[in-house]
């Protein structure tokens, strides 16, 4: 059930929210208890002429027909809406845990586009909240994106102060060795060509065979851990690449 109550009805709901039963433990069960006569209400007919609407008494309650309601589950089965998409007023996202406010459902449900398009048209109620954005979450996403680069810069600067000279010397020796191999066009045993007295030509440094596999595994695990931490920190309602929050859209109504 989706309602857009007036201020008086809303205040009355809030006064009864702790007293009326809810068979679901949430808002839907409460609304069914609050509107107890809803199942017996007549179905609204949009084709009634204006002349008839003016003379007939205004009913206390009417139910919208299926022409105004769309179910995502039925859309997934038929791969289309029962009416034109521009005429939809209510969309029910009841396909299990796939809710449109969770960013990862974007790749699973096509109707999520409708939800996100409505969210982009939301007006700004607080500074920085226009279009469904949340300044705090957006700042958090930018911080998590820039954090690895900051760590890399700090590590590189500390490495230059500690062992950068030896690294540059070894790199130059390796490049020089490759140059002599290409120039001579022959097979030269890797023994380290260097003019530096710090490198022993007869005893080259050997790299363990398993170091390459371990490096790949460590890098892969670091990426997985980083992704897991990011998913834990960033709420599900926030798109990781933009920081935009998929907040509740109210026009049209969705549930």
UniProtKB/TrEMBL annotation:
Top-level division of the source organism's lineage: Eukaryota
Molecular function GO labels: glycosyltransferase activity
InterPro entries, A to Z: GNT1/Glycosyltrans_8 (IPR050587), Nucleotide-diphossugar_trans (IPR029044)
Presence of the UniProt keyword Transmembrane helix in the record: yes
Keywords: Glycosyltransferase, Manganese, Membrane, Transferase, Transmembrane, Transmembrane helix
Coiled coil: none
Transmembrane regions: 139-158, 209-234
Name assigned to this protein: Uncharacterized protein
């Amino acid at each position: 059930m989706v309602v857009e109550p007036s201020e008086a009805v809303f205040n009355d709901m809030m006064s009864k929210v702790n007293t009326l039963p809810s068979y679901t433990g949430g808002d839907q069960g409460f609304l069914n208890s609050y509107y107890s006569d809803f199942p017996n209400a007549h179905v609204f007919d949009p084709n009634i002429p204006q002349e008839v609407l003016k003379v007939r008494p205004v009913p206390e309650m009417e139910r919208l027909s299926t022409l105004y309601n769309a179910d995502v589950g039925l859309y997934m089965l038929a791969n289309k809406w029962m009416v034109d998409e521009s005429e939809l007023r209510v969309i029910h996202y009841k396909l299990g845990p796939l809710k449109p406010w969770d960013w990862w459902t974007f790749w699973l449900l096509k109707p999520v586009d409708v939800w996100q398009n409505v969210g982009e048209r939301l007006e700004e109620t607080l500074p920085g909240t226009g279009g469904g954005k949340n300044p705090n979450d957006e700042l958090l996403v930018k911080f998590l994106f820039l954090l690895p680069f900051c760590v890399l810069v700090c590590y590189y600067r500390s490495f230059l102060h500690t062992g950068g000279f030896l690294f540059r010397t070894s790199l130059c020796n390796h490049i020089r060795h490759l140059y002599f191999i290409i120039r001579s066009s022959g097979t030269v045993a890797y023994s380290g060509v260097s003019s530096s007295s710090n490198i022993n030509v007869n005893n080259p440094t050997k790299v363990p065979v398993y170091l390459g596999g371990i490096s790949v595994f460590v890098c892969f695990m670091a990426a997985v851990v980083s992704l897991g931490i990011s998913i834990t920190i960033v709420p599900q309602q926030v798109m990781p690449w933009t920081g935009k929050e998929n907040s509740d859209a109210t026009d049209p109504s969705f549930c």
